[in-house]
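User: Please fill in residues for this 290-position structure.
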């Protein structure tokens, strides 16, 4: 019973973190049909922003909204000043461009911050642990899990209930029809880029609370985000969430039974099996297969 609860709690933590990252990545991928590989650097920047805000006196949890606002500005500027000009070009162009930008940002972080791992000294309310049914949960992981799931629900509400969210979904489904009803695609692209970067920053900020921070941390987490997006499928807001919870559950089971070394392998194998049966992903629409 205790092992089952431990697996469920770990799955919710990982699923919440992956869901935030996957929602942000899937927004740009789904709306602009662009694989924005700078997303890895955005995750890292969010983690470092949290770390440095903590160094000047911010509570690490209270710093998360500030980090999201900062990263929204970064994403907006990058989308408006760079990606909008290549989004409709050959598919390889934005991939090469964003990969290059990612290398520049990571290289700059390595130069200024070095490859040293940095950690946040947690405040008292994040220290310690609690036991539920024999499963051990640190306070930091509980708070992180709650914030991650809350942010995921907030994004869901924004996309489903607000005028801007509906405009983003309309642009993703049919840009020409969206233009006919007065939606400005460039504005939607900029907003989408900002929200995507803000969610990457939130993922990095939460990672900084429970893990160490380093310049190359984003690359590993981007791979997890890609797996979640491919597994859940594009074209549905529910896809990244289902993919995140599925990957979190599988990773948690494998990590608790056989060790964390095999968790990544298990996730990769699961994606290959799902795609062999359903190329669009678990909840993806056929339009996004091509």
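Assistant: Residues filled in for all 290 positions:
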């Amino acid at each position: 019973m205790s092992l089952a609860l431990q697996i469920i709690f770990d799955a919710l933590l990982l699923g919440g973190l992956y869901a935030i990252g996957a929602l942000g990545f899937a927004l740009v991928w789904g709306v602009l049909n662009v694989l924005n590989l700078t997303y890895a650097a955005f995750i890292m920047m969010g983690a470092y922003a949290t770390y440095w805000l903590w160094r000047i006196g911010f509570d690490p949890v209270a710093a998360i909204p500030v980090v999201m606002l900062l990263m929204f500005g970064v994403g907006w500027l990058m989308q408006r000043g760079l990606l909008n000009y290549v989004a409709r070009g050959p598919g390889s162009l934005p991939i090469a461009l964003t990969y290059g930008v990612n290398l520049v940002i990571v290289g700059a972080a390595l130069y200024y911050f070095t490859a040293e791992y940095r950690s946040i000294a947690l405040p008292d309310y994040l220290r310690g642990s609690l036991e539920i049914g024999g499963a051990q949960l640190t306070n930091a992981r509980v708070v992180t899990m709650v914030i991650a799931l809350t942010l995921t629900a907030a994004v869901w509400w924004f996309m489903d209930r607000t005028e801007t969210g509906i405009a983003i979904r309309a642009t993703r489904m049919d840009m020409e029809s969206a233009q006919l009803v007065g939606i400005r695609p460039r504005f939607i692209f900029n907003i989408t880029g900002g929200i995507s970067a803000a969610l990457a920053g939130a993922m990095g900020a939460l990672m900084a609370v429970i893990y160490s921070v380093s310049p190359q941390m984003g690359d590993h987490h981007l791979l997890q985000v890609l797996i979640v997006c491919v597994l859940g499928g594009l074209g549905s807001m529910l896809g990244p969430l289902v993919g995140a919870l599925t990957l979190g559950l599988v990773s948690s089971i494998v990590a608790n039974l056989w060790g964390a070394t095999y968790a990544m392998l298990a996730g990769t194998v699961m994606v290959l099996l799902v795609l062999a049966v359903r190329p669009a992903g678990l909840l993806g629409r056929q339009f996004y297969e091509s």
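For context: Strands lie at 129-132, 135-138.
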